[in-house]
Specification:
single chain, 91 residues, mainly alpha, Arc Repressor Mutant, subunit A, 4 helices, 53% helix
Length: 91
């Protein structure tokens, strides 16, 4: 039996969007995504990490990578630190 091929139409995207390198596009996506999930959890690192399926430490490294400054100590969170982080991400 002959195999049917379906033509797919490419997505039309303005040329300006192609000017980003893939690494920068991924970094921008991560930044927006992490800010939204952090905001959803009021800046709570543990809950955010659980939601996105990574360890707390991995999340902290990802946040540092995309430039979201951390006001958290390595072993303990204070309410003040959470409030400052929530302010930074717009929660």
């Amino acid at each position: 039996m002959p195999r049917t091929q379906t033509k797919t139409n490419p997505i039309q995207v303005p040329n300006a969007e192609y000017s980003l390198r893939i690494q920068e596009a991924v970094r921008q996506f991560k930044s927006v995504y992490l800010r939204k999930v952090l905001k959803l959890h009021g800046g709570n690192i543990s809950q955010t990490a659980k939601t996105i399926g990574v360890s707390r430490r991995t999340l902290q490294l990802q946040l540092k990578e995309v430039g979201i400054q951390m006001f958290l100590r390595e072993r303990a969170q204070t309410k003040t630190a959470q409030e400052r982080l929530a302010d930074e991400v717009g929660a």
